Amino acid sequence: EVQLVESGGGLVKPGGSLRLSCAASGFTFSSYSMNWVRQAPGKGLEWVSSISSSSSYIYYADSVKGRFTISRDNAKNSLYLQMNSLRAEDTAVYYCARQSHSSSSVDYWGQGTLVTVSS
Amino acid sequence: QSVLTQPPSVSAAPGQKVTISCSGSSSNIGNNYVSWYQQLPGTAPKLLIYENNKRPSGIPDRFSGSKSGTSATLGITGLQTGDEADYYCGTWDSSLSAGVFGGGTQLTVL
């Protein structure tokens, strides 16, 4: 069974940093591209970043470019999101999401971890 | 403002059919596969449709997807109260080199 479990969310002050982790199991992690998708309270889904299976290709939404860094450790079956210079508008539930082999669709989602940026 | 445009809400009676539209451009829907996701209240999204019109295992055939040009449509027949959820379309935008989602459509089954 595919499982994606996020951790690392919490309350942080504006300008602060936070590192999210996603532990993957039930599939060959090193074979899949992975994504972070976020959802602000009461709002829609927003794609944040994606990383290819070998970390060769990395993409970011303009809203986080230069502040967030996606990475992965295939030996540990883990995905990360380092978030710096956090702003109030980064407050959201952050989902770890597996990208399907055949297309850009996300075929599995984690349960999400809440990041709150507030003074 | 989302790159993909969806109606904010749709509604229909139990047993009826509803369609949800998703409009984009040549850089996203026009040249890439479209996916649809269902998000029940308080839960993570779930993949409903991938590659424009394919259903993952376990998704009933009441759910269907289609694409024409720069627009896509999700269809749901035989509506059930359990279908009340937010529905999102998504794809890749080749010009932005970014994933994009629609703003979401709230389905109410009256």
Short description:
The complex is a heterodimer of chains A (119) and B (110). By secondary structure, chain A is mostly beta strands.
SSE map:
The complex is a heterodimer of chains A (119) and B (110).
Chain A: E1 3-7, E2 10-12, E3 18-25, E4 34-39, E5 45-51, E6 58-60, E7 68-73, E8 78-83, E9 92-99, E10 106-109, E11 113-117
Parallel strand pairs in A: 2-11
Antiparallel strand pairs in A: 1-3, 3-8, 4-5, 4-9, 5-6, 7-8, 9-10, 9-11
Chain B: E1 9-12, E2 18-23, E3 35-39, E4 46-49, E5 63-68, E6 71-76, E7 85-93, E8 98-101, E9 105-109
Parallel strand pairs in B: 1-9
Antiparallel strand pairs in B: 2-6, 3-4, 3-7, 5-6, 7-8, 7-9
Give a description of the structure.
The complex is a heterodimer of chains A (119) and B (110). Chain A is built from no helices and eleven strands. Chain A has 119 residues and is mainly beta. In chain A, the strands form two sheets. In chain A, strands 2, 4, 5, 6, 9, 10 and 11 form a seven-stranded mixed beta sheet that branches. The model of chain A has no long low-confidence stretch (mean pLDDT 96). By secondary structure, chain B is mostly beta strands. Helix content of chain B is 0%, strand content 45%. Chain B has no helices and nine strands. In chain B, the strands form two sheets. In chain B, strands 1, 3, 4, 7, 8 and 9 form a six-stranded mixed beta sheet that branches. Chain B has a three-stranded antiparallel beta sheet with strand order 2-6-5, with no helix packed on it. Chain B is globular and about 40 Å long. The model of chain B has no long low-confidence stretch (mean pLDDT 96). Chains A and B meet through strand 5 and strand 10 of A and strand 3, strand 7 and strand 8 of B.
